[in-house]
Amino acid sequence: MPQTRASSVQQSPDRNPLVGLQAQRFAQITNVPIAEVEGRSIAELSEALKWRVDPNLFLFRQICGQVVRWDPVSGEFQPVPFATVHVMDTECDFLGFFPFYAKMCWLYPIWCREEQITQVVTDGCGNFCVWIPWFDIEWVVRWRLERYCFPEVFVPISLGDVLTYTGVLLKPAQGSGPRPVELQQAGLTLAPALKHRRA
Fold first, then answer.
1. pTM of the model
2. Considering only CA atoms, which of 101, 109, 113 is closest in space to residue 25?
3. Alpha-carbon torsion 160, 92, 130, 53, what sign?
């Protein structure tokens, strides 16, 4: 398991006080008044709320990864040693446009809040590990389960999807669609897409 230079700083992630989004989420998922949560650590809450709250919510999950950068000279990804990794928690509202005649929709994030959960420094090989509160992960999982159709809504579309939907391209049976050079040689135009847009 990779070790990080910041491991000494993160020996006790359960001692960090819950504020902002984390305090709100813990209060929401446990039905505990936020006044009992705000500013207190997981270690404190695990004692104060023992047998009132699911004990799994006081746990942490370790997430590991590697920071890399693209090297155009070698044509490969290279690890980034001793880089600072900021683990952020972002919550947004969305302004949506769902035209009844289209199979696609538009979502634009508004009123976003962003807070840092933790930070760590990568080791000499660009590897890092961080501890994420279990309740934070559980909150996201429950949110997704309550909005079971949202995973499809949040999948971004490609230009190929738009061209296929408007009839410029035929839907490929298997594999990827035609390459750009094949599109150029086919003499296709965006006229059908523009016609559909005007309609």
1. 0.65
2. 113
3. negative
Q: Where are the beta strands (DSSP E) in the chain?
A: 60-66, 68-71, 76-79, 84-97, 106-121, 127-133
Question: What pLDDT is recorded for position 1?
Answer: 38
CA distance 39 to 77: 41
- Write the pLDDT tens digit of every residue in 153-183: 777 778 887 788 777 777 765 555 555 555 5
Per DSSP, helices labelled H in the chain are 20-30, 42-48, 134-146, 150-153, 159-165, 180-186, 191-198
Q: Give me the amino acid identity at 151.
A: P
89-107 confidence digits (pLDDT tens): 888 888 888 887 777 778 8
Tell me which residue of 19, 59, 27, 23 sits closest to 43, measured CA to CA: 59
Question: How many other CB atoms are found less than 10 A from the CB of residue 195?
Answer: 11
Which residues face 108 on adjacent strands? 95
Give SS3 for 73. Answer: coil
CA of residue 49 relative to chain centroid, distance = 30
Residues 12, 60 contacting (CB under 8 angstroms): no
- Using an 8 Å Cβ cutoff, are 13 and 59 in contact? no
Tokens describing residue 66: 């590697």
Average pLDDT over residues 23-32: 93
pLDDT of residue 6 exceeding 50, the answer is no
